[in-house]
Structures
1.
Amino acid sequence: MQKCKFVGLASAAMLAMTPVVASAAITQYSDRSAFETATGATTVETFGPTFHFPIPSGVLNAQTGPCCAFNGDGATFGSGPPLEPGDILPGVTYSTPVLGPGCCYLAIDTQANYDGGFLDTTQSNGQTLTVTFDQAQAAVGFDAGSLMGNGFVITLFGADDQQIASLTDAITSQTPAFYGFANDTADITKLTLTTTTPGVDGFAIDNFTFGATSAVTSGTGTGQSPAGGVPEPAAWALMLMGFGLAGAGLRRRRAGLTLLDQVLPDVAIGDL
């Protein structure tokens, strides 16, 4: 019975020590068509045909407006009307910190290499763009060119702001190219994006793409970047409990063998 009890304790300990890991496999895409086919992410925010500068709150979503057709001294920018509620697609909020009064750190801008408006920052001090989703996503994508420097860091977050993955990618063209990221589960609730190049716009993106609210199970991207699993707090608790059970089992087994040695000192354990 002592042996059976120990085996049971050891089995329970091994199960308890098996970590519960939050992990993700991120597939990267450079072809927009392949990305949309594989993921079903086909909602594209184009940021409109003209620019709106600045967005003084540092927050842009479907509720933003009316605003953003002129700067602080009243000089008109662009040829279109002010940004109105509903001009930006629902489901996403774009934001960046506003660091001081009269400063504008978020704008819909225009430039020769972009088709209509694109989202950027007016400062070259490493500003970070945060994109928050109303509903968890399985894939996101956007166009970016060298206006954002020669590379960027994108970090994906899940529930409770738990980091899913952090990836660095290179920008090799002045003309915007597509960058897509698909997760194997639909749990992307937020992302952050910033350049890796000092002295340029912290971010400059166009045609932001989302809408994949189911897990991505098919499709082949241009690169696989598995994100290392991070044990959750519950996993650590289970592991510690497992070590405790294993230690208790070993102590009981030693105690049983010591008692047998005292009672039957001349009998080999194998003869029992």
2.
Amino acid sequence: SSKGASRRRSSVAVASRPSGHVSSSAAPERMEECLPAVTEGAIYLSAKKRIGMEELVGLIEKKLSGGYRECTLLIPFTDGRAVSYLNENAVVYETEYLESGVRMRIKLRKEDYGYYEKYLEGDA
């Protein structure tokens, strides 16, 4: 119903309102006592006073690396195609050519991990 839809919109608006919004009677110093506050997927901080900046950087790093997994692979020379693919599509920290194949310490997309798991030498 349209009544339910309007109720949903207003609850979203209230939920998405910045927590830094305080009434004019609240002292800003009291708000700063609560900072930084980290919840799932959100951080409340003061950029002006540099409160919560480390937490923000940590959240960004976590979000950006969330789709990747670090590992060490030993890829046989017979699968040179895998080495080429990884050089193009993974973060390569180290490559070492051994008699048994190519050892690569990499950060790999989780989508690719299943295929390359057969070459897993050990978690980095």
